[in-house]
Specification:
The protein contains 27 helices and 19 strands. By secondary structure, the chain is of the alpha+beta class.
Length: 736
């Protein structure tokens, strides 16, 4: 692949400033066009309520904001179930540098808006820079930039911010990759490693995999055309260095994620072909996208927030075909055209045999939804549009026309593309609004739960998963402890503990009311007692009272706080307590069976999984030999609590087991009176330490070794990159 117009030096600064000026206008346009995202509007907009904006990404942004402002990295979320490793969850973007910066500076509403506009701009900026490297002029580069930065998949990022944080970096990776292949310079290898790392940290592993695969194809297709024979060995070495640096810089994220996926509901076992192929697009959507839509190219989910597109009929395909009029750029045109075609065939899912072949590739079976390849389709279409504008203006310039004709034509085409994108922003889906209470539980309820010194949990029972006024991640959003808080991927220990049933047990739809409720996971309330769930919230007045067994269990409502009735149970265990009697279970499955046995009395004994070597011998002897006659449970006092540290004071007259009903997960460490003490798993899910008689102070701290090891590896990678940079400064290489 050769460039149509090799970038020269004369006027380069002026052209660069012109590009930045155009993109600055694009940034201003993005601000003006998308300012209608009214997160606080008083009306119900079902598109937003049913999207992941409020049931996931807004609470995530709020949690990151709170943690960063408290001086902590967002590593652990204690407000979700009995705790979840926030940094290891697939789509939080917990360690993405721009998330930490933006969401640290601004509260969630503002942060998501700034995040959106910034990534619109980054996508356009690097698309323009890539187009310039391919030899396109100012107008064609601007056309490609606007076509991608304001495309349907980028618009989808308004609803799912991790779409922005990953797919915005695709053109940056290709820009750096092109520079490395053509110039064989270290600076491009370092830039490539940086952009690849940012894409990974962006928070959407599926899109990151697609970008890596597409970039590999681009490198393979460009290597023999761009790289001079004498520089090919150096380029391969630089590619290897770039890959090593990127992998090293990703380790603080990848190692905790790998640790989590070993025991996650969505792990590394992969999906079946049928599961992986849904959702997909229909053939008519692909044809419609290739013949009608100028920018959108019909890759939106028919049920998603970008339903309904503005189109300029029969303009995209003819304009794209004009790219063949640029002889020096035909190689790029062929690559992007066939990539768009291949991506479209993949998005057809089970309707095309191409997807079944793709499914067999490494790692692809881990993800579902070929429709999520849409951003690649849009990017290839944007590059084809840029090449088409280049071809058409070049053709006009070669004819006997005034000198201003070609530039004017180019910018007319740019404004047509921008106008098409602008008209799309007039759709309701581009400026969604929501119920005024959709972002959280009622304030009265939040204040009530925060004031509880025992930090007990609450469980919400609701019939409608997307009911206005009910937030699926109310715990993360409001710093209250919610059992059943929504998460796409749960620690598998929860599934084993609750023996979840239902089609999607990790999507926040669960019930304690009946075992046969469609599409909901049944949860045994007795197991919630062990998790310190003291309160139950009902959003539908009278619903709980209608069921005799729950009325008998709860009695009258404890309070009515806003739109929520709150019921209280006295059978819930305290958040921190001690017991004197223990039962040793050989493994996790045996422990789960033991706590479900009718003879199990949680206020008298606790079940410890695994070996007794980690417990004081006096505790094991006492607990195993003594016959439980009466409850020995004593509540302990939590003297300090933060998401990553808990301090508890206990006083037990005999050898005892101190229990904290928070998730036992790798990375949690305990000290008793300042002495490191092993943590044992209690009652199938929770943390415990053995204690000798007397008063003690127990300090728990979350310091995952996977994260620490990742930081050391990243530091080593940085040292390697610095050494390579110093060596390159002393002995420069590259292609002139």
């Amino acid at each position: 692949m050769s460039s149509a117009l090799e970038p020269g030096t004369k006027g380069q600064t002026a052209r660069t400033l012109a590009i930045l000026g155009i993109l600055a206008m694009g940034l201003l346009a993005a601000i003006l066009w998308f300012h209608r995202i009214e997160f606080d509007a008083p009306n119900v907009h079902r598109t937003l309520i049913q999207s992941d904006t409020y049931r996931y990404f807004h609470p995530v942004a709020e949690f990151i904001h709170n943690e960063v402002n408290a001086g902590r990295l967002p590593l652990w979320n204690p407000y979700q179930m009995a705790g979840q490793p926030f940094l290891a969850l697939p789509v939080t973007g917990a360690l993405y540098p721009l998330n930490l910066l933006i969401m640290g500076l601004f509260e969630a509403n503002t942060a998501l808006g700034v995040h959106a506009v910034l990534h619109f701009f980054l996508a356009g900026l690097f698309t323009a820079l890539l187009a310039r490297r391919l030899g396109l002029g100012l107008a064609p580069s601007s056309a490609a930039a606007l076509a991608y930065m304001l495309s349907g998949p980028m618009l989808l990022g308004l609803y799912m911010s991790v779409h922005f944080s990953t797919q915005a970096w695709l053109p940056a990776i290709l820009w750096a990759l092109h520079g490395l292949l053509s110039e064989a310079r270290l600076k491009w290898a370092l830039a490539l490693a940086l952009f690849a790392s940012l894409t990974c940290y962006g928070g959407y592993p599926q899109l990151f995999l697609y970008i890596a695969q597409f970039s590999g194809l681009f490198a393979l297709g460009s290597f023999f055309f761009l790289t001079p024979p004498g520089a090919r060995l150096r380029v391969m070495l630089l590619l290897g260095l770039s890959g090593a640096l990127a992998l090293g810089w990703m380790m603080p994220l990848l190692l905790p994620q790998f640790e989590f996926t070993q025991e996650a509901s969505r792990g590394l076992q992969g999906l079946t072909l049928q599961q992986a192929s849904f959702p997909f697009i229909l053939t008519n959507a692909l044809v419609d996208g290739a013949t009608r839509d100028l920018v959108d190219v019909a890759m939106a989910n028919p049920a998603g927030p970008v339903l309904g597109r503005v189109a300029l009929p029969a303009l995209f395909l003819p304009l794209a075909l004009c790219g063949l009029l640029v002889p020096g750029a035909r190689g790029y045109w062929i690559f992007f055209a066939f990539s768009a075609l291949g991506t479209g065939l993949l998005m057809l899912g089970p309707q095309s045999p191409v997807f079944e072949v793709y499914y067999r590739l490494p790692l692809t079976a881990l993800f579902r939804g070929p429709i999520r390849l849409a951003f690649l389709y849009a990017f290839c279409a944007a590059m084809l549009l840029g090449l088409g504008v280049q071809g058409l203006t070049t053709f006009v310039a070669k004819r006997q026309t005034p000198g201003w004709a070609a530039p004017v034509l180019g910018f007319v085409l740019v404004f047509i593309i921008a106008g098409d994108a602008y008209m799309r922003t007039r759709l309701n889906s581009a400026h969604p609004s929501s119920h005024e209470n959709a972002r959280g539980a009622p304030k009265e309820l939040i204040d009530f739960l925060r004031a509880r010194p025992g930090r007990e949990r609450i469980y919400f029972e609701t019939r409608h998963l997307y009911a206005p006024g009910f937030l699926l991640k109310a715990g993360s959003m409001n710093q209250i402890f919610v059992a059943g808080d929504y998460e796409p991927s749960l620690y598998r220990g929860y599934l084993d503990y609750f023996e979840y049933t239902g089609s999607t047990p990790w999507h926040g739809n669960s019930t304690i009311l009946t075992r046969d409720r469609p599409h909901a996971a049944y949860i045994d309330p007795q197991l919630l007692d062990l998790m310190s769930v003291r309160f139950y919230g009902a959003f539908e007045p009278g619903r709980v009272d209608q069921l005799p067994e729950l009325k008998e269990r709860f009695g009258p409502a404890r309070a009515r706080l806003g739109s929520v009735k709150v019921y209280e149970t006295e059978s819930a265990l305290p958040r921190a307590y001690t017991v004197e009697h223990i039962h040793i279970a050989s493994d996790q499955a045996t422990a789960i069976r033991a706590i479900r046995d009718e003879s199990f009395s949680p206020r008298t004994m606790a079940v410890v999984s695994g070996t007794t070597a980690e417990l004081p011998p006096t505790l094991v002897g006492w607990g195993e030999q003594a016959e439980p006659e009466e409850p020995t449970l004593q509540e302990s006092r939590i003297t300090h609590f933060s998401p990553q540290a808990v301090v508890i004071e206990t006083d037990c007259p005999k050898p005892c087991l101190a229990v904290l009903t928070d998730l036992d997960y790798p990375g949690w460490q305990a000290e008793v009176d300042g002495i490191p003490t092993p943590i044992v798993r209690v009652n199938g899910l929770f943390r415990g330490v053995g204690l000798a008689p007397g008063k003690h102070v127990i300090a728990y701290r979350f310091a995952p070794s996977s994260f620490s090891l990742g930081l050391w590896i990243a530091l080593g990678a940085s040292a390697l990159g610095l050494a390579a940079w110093v060596a390159d400064r002393r002995w420069p290489h590259g292609v002139a």
